[in-house]
Fold this protein.
Amino acid sequence: MERTDAEAPGLLKPGRGRRRAEDVRHATLTAAAELLLAEGVHALTFSKVAARAGVSKMTLYKWWPSPGALAFDAYFNAFQATLAFPDTGDIKGDLTTQLHVFVDLLNRNGSVIAGIIGAAQGDPDLAEALSTHYVIQRRALAVERLTRAQQAGQIRAGVDLETIVDQLWGAVYHRLLLPAQPLTKEFIDQLIANLFQGVAPGSLDSTT
Amino acid sequence: MERTDAEAPGLLKPGRGRRRAEDVRHATLTAAAELLLAEGVHALTFSKVAARAGVSKMTLYKWWPSPGALAFDAYFNAFQATLAFPDTGDIKGDLTTQLHVFVDLLNRNGSVIAGIIGAAQGDPDLAEALSTHYVIQRRALAVERLTRAQQAGQIRAGVDLETIVDQLWGAVYHRLLLPAQPLTKEFIDQLIANLFQGVAPGSLDSTT
């Protein structure tokens, strides 16, 4: 996998013709994600990614404004499948499934993920990349699923769905970034129960 | 205010006798909080704090295990009054008051606070200090107020109060650290409404 000719014109493969843009993008994102998880966001440079992916550094400069932008694009890409929002038609079940997977991921790679988010604070370029290439896209996917649930009558009309994102995934990030209580599946179940049932007395005693 | 004799034996004041430990602690935390808000957590050293507070560096070494621990102690101390948890007997009103003040603070000093939390990721000493000297204490104060509300019958028996902390303050930190949506008072009101009413259909339509 690893190539030493980082500056080689990777788009031209002798005997195999020009690599398709899609293949180059895939190879780049895979290499970037591997480097990111192995060494953290500060270690990610265009040179290292180009060498590992076997593509030219010029291509990376053309496609991504900064290594930070590439990092979050790679991060988003790597976790998109794992963190997909299922739709079985049962919003509470689907949220439970997705958030259990998220907690599993954080219990494995939490310190790398916290390091990435931490590095983005106080680094405006990285913060911009985190927001554009990760946060906004992830929120949109969550809100999309919640919108279908609201249309299906499983979430009250009038409830602000963006706020639900902060009360589920934001609550989980809180335990990652300001640690004090454990990140467990029981915690996820409590998050969902509190939010759907409500914590006030007289709120639903038996939930669907 | 600023003193240049950083190494002077600050506990002995000619003509005024020994400064009381409480005064020294107060002067140190005030100086540390000022430096923290002005220059960020990385700029905070025992030397600078000692010079500004007019206390000996030895005293700081004796009382705080690291500059990070001092930073969070100062941070906690500085915001303890501002971020107090009021108790008028009405939990929803009191949470609204406290969280509106919190959002105001973040809209003024958010980038400094995000920088402190960001720096703690990937720095185990700072992370330990953040947890011990800030997060655990803040959570305990919040849970204390929520416990009284639960005893007063304003929160259902059986609801896990630690989880509520993540769904209110954690949700707010989420918008600070992974920015995409605004930190407004309307957001706070939605957080509280969602959590108390519940978002499921059939949950409380009219809240107390």
